[in-house]
Amino acid sequence: MADYKIKDVEILTGIKAHTLRIWEKRYGILVPDRTDTLIRTYSDEELSFLLNISLLNKHGLKISKIAALSKNEIATKVWDLHSVSVLDTSGEQFVLALLDMDERLFTHTLQAIINEVGLEKTFTDHLIPFLERIGVMFLVGSINPAQEHFMSNVIRQKVIAEIDKLPIPSVDERPVLLFLPEHEWHELGLLFYQYLLRKNGVSTFYLGQSLPYDSLVKSINLLNPRVIISSWLTAVDESFIRNYFEKLQKDAPSSLLCSGGAQIKVHLKKLPKSVVPIAKAVEVLQLVR
Q1: How far apart are alpha carbons 36 and 172 in whole angstroms?
Q2: pLDDT in tens, 178-224
Q3: Nearest-5° angle of CA 122, CA 128, CA 132?
Q4: What is the value of pTM for the model shown?
Q5: Are residues 137 and 65 part of one domain?
Q6: How many domains would you assign to the chain?
Q7: Are 154 and 217 in contact (CB under 8 A)?
């Protein structure tokens, strides 16, 4: 059970703190707990309730009408919204699904967006903002590893399904090799790179999570890739990541080394100048041309 401050709730629901205070005072929609210093705090259940209210309000239902509904009536009306476009409410629906570990809601919302705008815009315009948004939830301790794994695996399955629909490009030039170093298991970004490349007809070899370095070198010797792409999210020591890329530079002298992820941003100034950072996923296409 997490305790959210009003600013956390504002970020997660999109309801301005000032508006929330007015709703509480005028309509009594919630009576949040308060700390010894009178700071409002909200529970997971209250956050879910406010997310539902935010969804209905965004779809034109006045707060005075919402306040008169029971929680069951609110939940029913929210589910009825699933038949309309989810483009404007994806963030709230994703967070609700995450809190409740509701696979039906998560997959329904995700597939509806993919059907409407395609995977590329779904990932860049909806999933990335959602992943950034729930950073607040990690900070306040409201997400446990099971919830994170649930969310990541549902997204992962969808991305892989979309990749499987694409034709396998012919190997008519040196390919692009994608991998994660052996301590790294967060592959959503790398999978999306794979999708973008395959969609644009680029020959790729995807080696996946936690690849031992000696296996990476064997693959480089076998495939002679023109570009090697990795992603580094898990925290690592500066000397480790620097030494890793210095060694990789020597073992793959004819390959362009590109990498994304938070750790590349943190340690970029200490990495070899030949390492090209990927700040945004769409940059991958520019780097391989």
Answers
A1: 68
A2: 999 999 998 999 999 999 999 999 999 999 999 999 999 999 999 99
A3: 150
A4: 0.76
A5: yes
A6: 2
A7: no
